[in-house]
Write a structure and sequence with these properties.
This protein is of the alpha/beta class and 392 residues long. The chain has helices at residues 5-14, 16-31, 50-61, 77-91, 105-117, 134-140, 158-164, 187-204, 265-278, 286-293, 302-319, 341-350, 375-390, and strands spanning 37-38, 100-103, 123-128, 144-149, 169-175, 209-213, 236-241, 254-258, 331-332, 353-354, 356-357, 367-370.
Length: 392
């Protein structure tokens, strides 16, 4: 074989989202883009906030010496300080720029953290449904992913988490607002999770880290607030990006924030900085770091995503689908009317509706709809959604 057997197997398992996206491109060529309803990929379609373009142009016009040069692997100090100042309000703790490391998106952030903390054979626990690539991120660094069920409404099941944590557990990853369910974990559940991890760390004689994957933190609805994990647990790290709140996923900019009271903070920082370099990221994009430093707190018009959520939920409820209304992100995770979610997704494809089976997210019997699409795509797809459900 030309590539590793593991990569061949991973490719067969992990490409459901991309396969549906590629199928969409084929169908659009055949039937026309307006006759294909592609809900497969979580690719933000809203424009960045107005301040982004103005700031980008101003920063790009600057010709200061070294503006495109290598930098410290942790990133530009001015950017890290600007982020820390914002996080003091967002996370409710006295964090400084020294506890921030700039990364190539949230995916880069998670890989940097896992490279830094995992030994071969370590386990990473996460609630299911979960972002599909967590399994591969853990494997990248010698670990394995252990998934645990959530409650029926996708809130944290602390009893299941407690049973899953054992001598090999090194970290727990949570994703709130969640991809694929849109659920936001409340403050009480995070506080209880923090107490559980503290007790387990003491019992097992090893630090268990809490990693909070937060790229959708600012995409929230109905006046819901995303609680601070730093207020819940000191051995925690935030991994996030600007892909969704600034609608710039292709620019690959994110950061890691370490709790300022983490027990091994100095060792963590040293490991993260080294991992950022030796994984090949070296440093986050210099131009985007300078732009982001001036845009703390900015976000896209979230009301437009909420309008789409409400339009989609109303139409699917009328059609007879069962689901939990998402509190954030831009995904809906309805139940499939048949056990075989992949088969149901294929039936929807006959109506040129492209969604992703829930099995790939650890949520069999469901399917994911990404509603970062125009309102017309949602309304035009409704007859097809109704027709297919009626068959079952």
């Amino acid at each position: 074989m030309t590539i590793a057997k593991k990569m061949t197997a991973f490719g067969e398992q992990s490409s459901l989202i991309r396969k549906m996206f590629e199928e969409g491109a084929r169908l659009k060529k055949e039937f026309g883009a307006d006759k294909v309803y592609d809900f497969s990929l979580g690719n933000p379609d809203l424009p960045p906030p107005p301040a982004f373009q103005k700031t980008l142009e101003a920063v790009a016009a600057s010709d200061s010496d070294g503006c495109h040069a290598y930098m410290a692997n942790a990133g530009l100090l001015e950017t890290r300080r600007a982020i820390a100042d914002h996080l003091v309000k967002e996370q409710g703790v006295a964090i400084s720029g020294d506890e921030i490391l700039m990364t190539c998106g949230a995916a880069g952030a998670l890989n940097v953290v896992l490279k830094s903390i995992l030994d071969p054979g370590d386990e990473v626990v996460t609630p299911a449904p979960f972002f599909v690539e967590y399994r591969y991120y853990a494997d990248n660094h010698g670990g394995s992913l252990v998934t645990v069920p959530t409650h029926a409404d996708y809130t944290l099941n602390l009893n299941a988490l407690e049973k899953a944590i054992g001598p090999k557990t090194k970290a727990v990853i949570i994703n709130s607002p969640n991809n694929p369910t849109g659920q936001v974990y409340n403050a009480a559940s995070l506080t209880d999770l923090g107490k559980l991890l503290a007790a387990k760390s003491t019992e097992l004689g090893r630090t268990i880290y809490l990693l909070s994957d937060e790229p959708y933190r600012k995409i929230i609805y109905d006046q819901i607030k995303v609680p601070s994990i730093f207020s819940a647990y000191t051995e925690s790290l935030v991994c996030t990006s600007y892909s969704k709140d600034l609608s710039i996923p292709g620019e690959r900019l994110g950061f890691i924030a370490i709790h300022p009271e983490a027990t091994y903070k100095a060792e963590l920082l040293a490991g993260l900085i080294l991992a950022n370099r030796i994984l090949g990221f070296v440093n986050a994009p210099a131009l985007m770091q300078r732009v982001a430093a001036k845009l703390q707190g900015e976000k896209v018009d979230v009301n437009r995503y909420q309008k789409r959520r409400d339009l989609l939920c109303s139409g699917l409820a009328d059609a007879g689908y069962t689901f939990t209304t998402p509190s954030g992100a831009f995904y809906l995770f309805p139940q499939s009317p048949i056990e075989d979610d992949a088969a149901f997704v294929q039936e929807l494809k006959k109506e040129r509706i492209l969604v992703v089976p829930g099995s790939g997210f650890g949520g069999p019997g469901h399917f994911r709809i990404s509603y970062c699409v125009p309102e017309k795509t949602i309304t035009d797809a409704m007859p097809g959604f109704k027709k297919v459900l009626a068959q079952f």
